[in-house]
Amino acid sequence: MKRRLHIVGSGKRVLETALPVLKSATDWELAGISSRRARRITNGTEEFDVTALDILDADTLANVDLVYLVVAKPAVPDVLQRLAPHVPAKCELLIETPVMLFKHLGYLDRLEAFRRVWVSEDCFTLPCWDPLRATGERFTSAHFDHSAYSYHGVAMARAVLGNARVRAARSDAVGRRVSFDGGASFTTREPRDYRVGRFSAEGSGLPVADHDPGREHRRLAALGTTDELVGFRLDDAEHELSTTERAVVGAPGEGDGMFRWMDGMKRVGFLRLLDALAHGRPAYALDDALEDAVVDYWLHRVGRYRATALTDPRRGAARLCYRLLTKAAGLRRS
Fold it and tell me: What does pTM read for this prediction?
């Protein structure tokens, strides 16, 4: 039996990712779409009725297994408050990155209406990471050259380096350096531009790169043609996308590197998150996403971050501190 998904939101992310992916997702069916106002949206040749959020009730969500919340970030606390009385006990939440604005972290308790909360961070499940994971190698450093953006870059690094906590980070005019517990770290060169984006990583073996770094290395490359992505290869080891995954990739963007497929890779990543949830496996964890966003916030504000009891959003003291800051600023609403 298919699981049922209700979407709250009707913007670009829904049109370009969620609806195309749901069309191919064999384990899910669309229960409905709600948004700020009623309207009709079009995706390709299909039309979808969007109901006003104000009329959403318990009957609407009674047989829903997962709510996908993808609304403008300033609206998230209010929408969560609107949903809370109507969420059935079995219902889980998939919320769009970065979960909440920093100034709204005091509203995290509004997520408690749902049985579990996951985050739709599809950069963690990009198919280009498949060959690296398959090696079983522990990579200790990675560099994203014009290929990582904001908190998504932390998630990409987690996919390559292992899912450890962030220990410290700093940023300057060139890019960022982020260190994880256990010693792994990554750097970025900004700004993000997928047309010219590149990637490299180092571990116990030869370095891995999707370009020629001017030294001996293992080559990570896209498989397929100029118009079709079928998988990724690391030297002679090939990792092909499933038929369903190929169906959601779509056309490439500009450029000649593997990141020209970023939009399509993110749709595959989103499909994989839904597949994990359909089969009882975890998607991207709330604590990880909150850490990604908090690190990004402090790098934007002061150019530095260090995990402490008062800054690490995984810790109760830090969450209390952020909640008090929200109240002090007069931003917490009933």
Answer: 0.95
